[in-house]
Design a protein that fits this description.
The protein is mainly beta. The protein contains 1 helix and 18 strands. Strands 2, 5, 6, 8, 9 and 10 form a 6-stranded mixed β-sheet that branches. Strands 12, 14, 16, 17 and 18 form a 5-stranded mixed β-sheet that branches. Strands 1, 3, 4 and 7 form a 4-stranded antiparallel β-sheet that branches. It is flat and about 55 Å long.
Length: about 230
């Protein structure tokens, strides 16, 4: 009888210890999948509030191990951000200015693991204005050099590369502004009306460069933010 009791006691202790060892505490949230507004698309389903603003419905998927979501929206023309926190549903209506490009993403949060949040992909869309028949391209984004990077020149040269898109699928041309002052100085002719989204340029060593890109679809244009990098 004593042997049976001892065996049962060992079994109970084993089960308790095993369950404790398998409990690893709060789990990191999984990223949400963005649903709407769609990436690199025209958003024309917003509910018009005024001549200059629309109410846009954002939606995303539920993510595991998540208590709430933070929605981040950035106006790509002004670089201003809206941070809408503590969302317990997977949708949110937000009033935005028409005739502007936006990016957006979702941060998933576990209240028991606040230092380990997870971000979704970043999507962008264009909110068309009233009576607009053509949307401007999205502002170009730096690909290379990575902003803030120190670049090693090859034969005194490096390649500047950027990326962009257009919701109307128009053919695009680019003008690169690159200088050691502020990224706003008039560029040489060979930097204007480029058909490729990259350009090999001659640079000075041990210098700081500033650059931006103006993208045109032949009707409208967009201006990127100003990026910078150093050379060795």
């Amino acid at each position: 009888m004593t042997k049976i009791r001892s065996t049962c006691l060992y079994l109970v202790v084993f089960i308790v210890l095993n369950s404790c060892s398998s409990d690893k505490g709060p789990k990191t949230p999984e990223p949400s999948i963005l649903i709407f507004p769609e990436n690199n698309e025209l958003c024309s389903t917003g509910v018009s509030v005024t001549n200059s603003q629309s109410n846009v419905e954002f939606s995303w998927s539920e993510s595991k191990n998540t208590n709430y979501y933070n929605l981040v929206i950035e106006n790509l023309n002004t670089n201003s951000r809206k941070n809408i926190d503590l969302l317990y549903q997977t949708s949110k209506s937000v009033i935005l200015d028409k005739a502007n490009p936006y990016s957006w993403y979702i941060i998933s949060v576990n209240e028991e693991k606040l230092d380990d949040t997870v971000q979704s992909e970043v999507w962008q869309f264009y909110l068309r204005g009233d009576n607009e028949s053509n949307s401007p391209p999205f502002p170009a984004k730096a690909v290379s050099p990575i902003p803030g990077l120190t670049v090693e020149l090859i034969n005194g040269k490096s390649v500047i590369e950027w990326s962009t898109s257009d919701v109307d699928n128009d053919s695009l041309s680019y003008s690169l502004y690159l200088d050691e002052i502020d990224g706003n100085q008039d560029p040489p002719n060979e930097y204007l009306n480029l058909s490729d989204s990259f350009l090999e340029v001659s640079l000075n060593s041990e210098s700081i460069y500033y650059w931006k890109v103006i993208t045109s679809d032949g009707v409208n244009s967009s201006i990127s933010q100003i990026y910078s990098f150093k050379t060795k």
